[in-house]
Amino acid sequence: MEKTIDHVGIAVRDIEGSKDFYINVLGGTFIDHYVSEASGVESEVAVLYVNGLQTELLAPTNNTTSPIARFIKQKGKGVHHIAYHVHDLDEALKELEEQGIRVLDHTRRMNKHGRRLIYLNPADTEGTIIEYCDYPE
C-alpha cells in the first residue's frame, strides 16, 4: 500500500511562540488551533502549512498524563512523530500485522478534522514515533 507523508508533529512548550516562528520565519500559514483533552492525548494543537506540508505543533495541557509532556521530559522539544497517509487504515493495519509490526491500540481515534489515526509501536520502528492515518469520507 502506498504511503505518503501527511504531516510532522512537533513537541513544543509554547504554542504561540512556536506559531510565530513557523509563520514569520518559515512563511507558514495558520490553519487551526484546538485543545484535545481526550484521555491519553491531553494536548493543545496548532495546525500550519509550510510550503504545502502540514505541521502540527503539540503542547501538553496536563504535565502529568499528556504523552507530549512525557516526550518533552524524556527527549526535549522537537520532532515528535511523522504521520503517513494510507488509503485505507484498516487495510494498512492488516498489512502491519502480517509483517509483525505492532501498533499502540490505545492511540486509535478520530481527530476533530475527521482523520482516523493510530501510532505504531516505536519498539518496531527503530524508535521513531510513526502515525498511520486516513481520511474516510
SSE order and pairing:
Layout: E1 3-11, H1 15-25, E2 29-36, E3 43-50, E4 53-60, H2 67-75, E5 78-86, H3 89-98, E6 103-110, E7 116-120, E8 130-134
Parallel strand pairs: 1-4, 5-8
Antiparallel strand pairs: 1-5, 2-3, 3-4, 6-7, 7-8
Strands ordered across the widest β-sheet: 2-3-4-1-5-8-7-6
CATH topology annotation: 2,3-Dihydroxybiphenyl 1,2-Dioxygenase, domain 1
Poorly predicted regions are none
Shape, per Cα inertia axes: globular
Order of helices and strands: EHEEEHEHEEE
**Corresponding CATH superfamily:** 2,3-Dihydroxybiphenyl 1,2-Dioxygenase, domain 1
Strand content: 35-45%
Tell me the total number of β-strands.
8
Q: What is the domain tally?
A: 1
Organism: Salibacterium qingdaonense
GO molecular function: metal ion binding; methylmalonyl-CoA epimerase activity
Protein name: Methylmalonyl-CoA/ethylmalonyl-CoA epimerase
InterPro entries: Glyas_Bleomycin-R_OHBP_Dase, MeMalonyl-CoA_epimerase, MMCE/EMCE_epimerase, VOC_core
